[in-house]
Amino acid sequence: MNARQKKILEFLARDGEVLVQDLAKRLDVVTMTVRRDLQALELEGALIRTHGGAALSNAGIIEFAFLKKNEENNAEKRAIASRVAASIEPGMTVGLDTGTTCLEVAKAIAGIPNLKVLTSSLAIASALYSRDNIELVLLGGKARRGNPDLTGWLTEENLKHFRVDVAVLSADAADKKGLYTTDEALAHVSQGIIASAHKAILAADHSKFDKSSFLLHATWQDFHQVVTDAGLPADKRRWLQQVAKNVLYAEL
Q: Which residue range(s) make up the domain with 113?
């Protein structure tokens, strides 16, 4: 999806149905270009063509929400991913949790030779699928509504059969007690990924700290390393250094 098509999804998310002529004016392109973009987005299932315009499909609403989440603190997530990738060596087996930060980690390690990557994220699988240097193992399970992830008893059972060198996880929120998520099914998968790893790394940007969410699913003792960004304030750094092992701060 190019930048113009992302803008089209933004307009549709904000305004509902939008006419081709209106999109052409907003994007400063000819209507034929807009029609080609709409056709491409329709083929992907992101929108529905209407008489003279388009509206988001249900799949498009989900995809737009994921894109917006991925753009939040994206520079920080890329810096964190680069720092995590520096600890991944050729030939390793790597478990990647769901979430947009782990997606950035997947992109950062995509060029490392001879990796085996285990994940329950359809977004990560899509990012790594075409890489000849990576053996990709996608855990089975039930596709989670509203997010490109797999969860459920099948995912959890499959995880018991794997052992990885390094697991990288993200979090919806973190405080002095540990890590939180909004989804119970997702929590079970994250716990399984931690259990499968010789070494677990938390990758989370500064916005996730000093917050709680629905379910506490991991403690700081579960992680061998924490990688966040240099934007974490001093007061949060103090308690993080006390509760976590080996905290690294990625510079932008």
A: 73-250
Q: Final residue of a domain: which of 33, 50, 69?
A: 69
- CATH number for the domain harbouring residue 37: 1.10.10.10
Cα–Cα distance between 49 and 90 in angstroms, integer? Answer: 46
pLDDT digits (tens, 9 = 90+) for 6-50: 888 888 877 878 899 999 999 999 999 999 999 998 888 788 888
**CB contact at 8 A, 134 and 128:** yes
Count of CB atoms situated within 10 Å of the CB of 91: 11
Q: Token digits for 39?
A: 């056709």
> For the chain, what is the mean pLDDT?
91
| Same-domain check for residues 211 and 182 | yes
pLDDT in tens, 130-141: 899 999 999 999
Measure the CA–CA gap between 153 and 50, rounded to whole angstroms: 40
Percent of the chain, pLDDT > 90? Answer: 70
Secondary structure (DSSP) of 99-137: SHHHHHHHHHTTTSTTEEEEESBHHHHHHHTT-TTEEEE
pLDDT tens sequence across 194-204: 999 999 999 99
Q: Report the distance separating Cα 79 and Cα 81, nearest Å.
A: 5
Instruction: Tell me the C-alpha distance between 191 and 216, whole Å.
Output: 11
CA distance 101 to 78: 8
Query: What is this structure's pTM?
Result: 0.77
113 plus 53 within the same structural domain: no
